[in-house]
Amino acid sequence: MTQSNNLVGSNINLVKSHNMRAILLSLLRDDKVSRVELAEKLSLSNTTITNLTSELLGQGIIVEERIETPEKPRRVGRPRRMLRLVPSARYAIGVHIGVGLFRVAITDLFAEIIYNEIEIFDLTTPPEDVINNIVQLIEETIKVCDVERERVIGVGVGASGLVNYEKGISVLAPRLGWENVPIQHLMEIQLDLPVCVDNNVRAMALAEAFFGDGRGVGVLAFVYGRIGVGSGIVVNGRVFRGSGAGAGEIGHTIVIPQGGDICTCGSTGCLETLLSEPVWIRYVEDLAAAHPDSLIAATLNLEDERTPIERIFSAARDGDELIQQFIEERACYLGIALANLVNVLNPELIILGGMLAQGSDLILPIAEAKMRETAFARLGENVQLKTTSFGWRAGVIGAAALALTTYFYKNVEVI
Ligand SMILES: [Zn+2]
Fold first, then answer.
1. CA of 407 to the centre of ligand 1 (A)
2. Cα-to-centroid distance, 231 and ligand 1 (Å)
3. Contact 79, 68 (CB under 8 A)
4. Which of 1, 65, 331, 344 is most buried (most C-beta within 10 Å)?
């Protein structure tokens, strides 16, 4: 949406759509609400609420439940009629495209995952083939779940790198080797469903704002670290995308002004050169080679199911001082980048995901102290820093949230 849309006039259908959206969002946040409460909360007439909720009842999107209210004896015999959303009334499909893997999940109206699948792809695979494989997995997922296709409201795609949401294009994803890939178009010509695409971390931030710990929060940022580092910003329920496709590229904040390592973006000293899985694994492997008798060397050599990053965190937890010092130093750089984010945005909440959440017991306290110490005046004191409660599901839940907020909770006329 461009800024100029704020200046567009309104008509009766838009008003209805706006009111419908307000009702659905209210039901999403409050679980059960009576018509009278809805009318009061939304400053709408009882007639408007009755008309709009009848429509939703007719479509099976909400149900009415009678609840006795013993605390109000005068009302005995006149149970309150409460309305609530039916989570399984509609479904959304979320697609998370990471570096070398994609996940497809089907969720209900509360972004709860009903089914999900993961597939690995080689980075030399042409993007068109990756999209074709995603489409195939979506079709299989709909079949396996036995979900009626007309109940699927659409597909949300969260992709790594710069994404143009308006056009549904992956503008640039250097780690995937993708440039100007028309994801939305390629998927819509094969699927009989609408498709929307955004950056994967922006989608995660959106999920937190509507379905996670960010509910009711005015300004929040989601900071995700894995192969790279990115952030998503949500302001009053809307994703902040900047003037192009690049808002939130915190990974390219320069934290070492001189003499830093070269980043994939071509610059030097970016946060990403100090804080990402590949960078950590490379550094720690060298450290282990230089200290063959260390705990980390032994941990890396163990034959078990854990990923290298899990082994690094585990060695630190088991007392490897070299690794503890390394993590502490890197967490400080994260704290500086977070302080910059706080100074610019003044968010109420920052949520960490990916490897930052996996190692949050080691990373968060250090990053938090540095952020509070470095941020301007009291801005750092007032922000809450926590890890995502979505865990590994943040990517697909984010993508599904993108579909739900684009096609269901926002533009309700499509239902
Ligand atoms: Zn960079």
1. 34
2. 14
3. yes
4. 331
Whole-model pTM? 0.89
CA of 332 to the centre of ligand 1 (A): 18
> For the chain, how are helix, strand and coil distributed in percent, rounded to 5?
45, 20, 30
Residue 288 structure tokens: 């282990």
The pLDDT of residue 414 is: 33
Gap from CA of 162 to ligand 1 centroid (Å): 13
The alpha carbon of 228 and the centre of ligand 1 are apart by a number of angstroms equal to 9
Summarised one tens digit per residue, pLDDT across range 251-286 is: 999 999 998 999 988 899 999 999 999 999 999 999
- Ligand 1 centroid distance, CA of 263 (Å): 5
* 268 CA from centroid of ligand 1 (Å): 7
Q: Which ranges in 5-125 belong to alpha helices (H)?
A: 12-30, 35-42, 46-58
Of residues 304 and 269, more confidently modeled? 269
Amino acid at 99: V
Residue 29 CA to residue 83 CA, distance in Å, equals 12
pLDDT tens, position by position, 341-362: 999 999 999 999 999 999 999 9
pLDDT at 359: 96
Residue 251's H or E segment, with its range, is none
